[in-house]
């Protein structure tokens, strides 16, 4: 199995390249770690390689808050500089500083 180096880290705010939603990274898998059924549910023409980092995001769009699991190839840095409004931010992060969140000590691994 290939071990990929993650481009992004905990607390960074990212934007989905295709769907435009924003999310803050709260966990990273070096390679795909979801179920095979989850992966096969993605349309084949849009299905990313499993051999890359995948990010757990506290995500938000104009109408909702949710948790997303996204391949690195579908993410880019969010350039707005704006904090997130996600209601679970305080469960994972202690503070907002210089455009990203600082992980909470109580959630650190």
Can you describe this structure in just a few lines?
The protein has 109 residues and is mainly beta. Helices cover 8% and strands 35% of the residues.
Task: Provide the structure class.
Answer: mainly beta
Strand order of the largest sheet: 4-3-2-1-5
User: What is the count of helical runs?
Assistant: 2
Tell me about the largest β-sheet.
Answer: 5 strands, antiparallel
List low-pLDDT spans.
Answer: none
Can you tell me about this structure?
It is a single chain. A 5-stranded antiparallel β-sheet has the order 4-3-2-1-5, with no helix packed on it. A two-stranded antiparallel ribbon has the order 6-7. The chain is mainly beta. The radius of gyration is 14 Å and the shape is globular. It has 2 helices and 7 strands, in the order ββαβββαββ. The model has no long low-confidence stretch (mean pLDDT 92). Strand 3 (54-60) and strand 4 form a beta hairpin.
Features:
mainly beta; 2 helices; 35% strand; 7 strands
Provide the fold topology.
Layout: E1 13-16, E2 22-29, H1 36-40, E3 54-60, E4 65-71, E5 75-77, H2 89-92, E6 93-97, E7 100-103
Antiparallel strand pairs: 1-2, 1-5, 2-3, 3-4, 6-7
